[in-house]
Amino acid sequence: RQEKRTVICEKEEIMNILQCENVTKTYKMGQTTVTALDGVDLAVEKGEFVAVVGASGSGKSTLIQHLNGLLRPTEGTVLINGTDMRKDPVKCKSFFGYVPDNPDVYERLTGMEYLNFLADIYRVSPAERKARIDRYTEAFGIAAAVRNPIKSFSHGMRQKLVITGALIHEPMLWILDEPMVGLDPMAAHVLKEEMRAHCAKGNTVFFSTHVLEVAEKLCDRVGIIRNGELAAVGTLEELRAQAENGESSLEDIFLDIVNGGA
Ligand code: ADP
Ligand code: MG
Asked: Is any ligand 1 atom within 6 A of the Cβ of residue 32?
């Protein structure tokens, strides 16, 4: 019995793979101060599939760039798997793979050189990297193209390459910023299935989208961001209860929360 308790305690130790406490970002623009993120509190448990939705300019990318350590909060704390981003950013970064909203990659490398470069950074063994590169490049239909220089790649091909690179160390947490943008329907389908499978194995996916149907269909929980504020977060059921008129679809809930709040 004692033993069982210890095991449970260990499991409970770090349940939140992702945690934001009062994350705030302000920019000085001459005399005025712009608040890009306003006191965001968020906790995502291991195994969850979470989307953040919001209009353009609402703060989705800014939030994601605080989660991955690209931006430092003016105030507040980001924890990845219990580690403070400020204290040990490299450890934090070992836990996740990040897909940015724009696939800006080293154009002079070939796709394969780029993938091997990332595999080196994350210290992925030759056997593992080969298996993962084969798996993702085949699923995305770029297995032959990765021999060529990235500068010859289309936007969609670059996006697929960046996704493959972000997943090369098989991170427990995927952080993706508008990952479906620029993907053809087949690749978008592959990615959605991969995200679903990743969560089904107890891993976590956190992504932003402005396509409400994607969030509604895929996710356990959805966060709604408005003017840098996390206006609501919950399951569809919980959001429905929060929306004033008992709206049914995420679109209605979204409009209600975005328009309703001051
Ligand atoms: P989204 O990804 O939801 O479209 P962003 O996170 O890119 O939104 O931007 C949110 C807001 O943050 C913008 O509307 C802008 O007001 C502000 N912002 C972002 N970066 C800067 C910056 N470098 N200087 C000033 N304001 C910024
Ligand atoms: Mg954005």
From this structure: no
The pLDDT value recorded for residue 232 is 94
C-beta 60 within 6 A of ligand 1? yes
Q: What is the 3-state secondary structure (H, E, C) of the chain?
A: CHHHHHHHHHHHHCCEEEEEEEEEEEEEECCEEEEEEEEEEEEEECCCEEEEECCCCCCHHHHHHHHCCCCCCCEEEEEECCEECCCCHHHHHHCEEEECCCCCCCCCCEHHHHHHHHHHHCCCCHHHHHHHHHHHHHHCCCCCHHHCEHHHCCHHHHHHHHHHHHCCCCCCEEEEECCCCCCCHHHHHHHHHHHHHHHHCCCEEEEEECCHHHHHHHCCEEEEEECCEEEEEECHHHHHHHCCCCCCCHHHHHHHHHHHCC
53 pLDDT above the threshold of 70 = yes
Task: Read off the pTM.
Answer: 0.91
Mutation pick for ligand 1 pocket among 25, 27, 40 (CB with most ligand atoms within 8 Å): 27
- Ligand at minimal distance from the CA of 101 is 2
Whether residue 11 is predicted with pLDDT greater than 60 in this model: the reply is no
pLDDT digits (tens, 9 = 90+) for 185-214: 999 999 999 999 999 999 999 999 988 999
Cβ 163 vs Cβ 199: under 8 Å: no
* CA proximity to 145, closest of 120, 110, 106: 110
The CB of 111 under 6 Å from ligand 1? The reply is: no
Measured from the alpha carbon of residue 65, the closest ligand is: 1
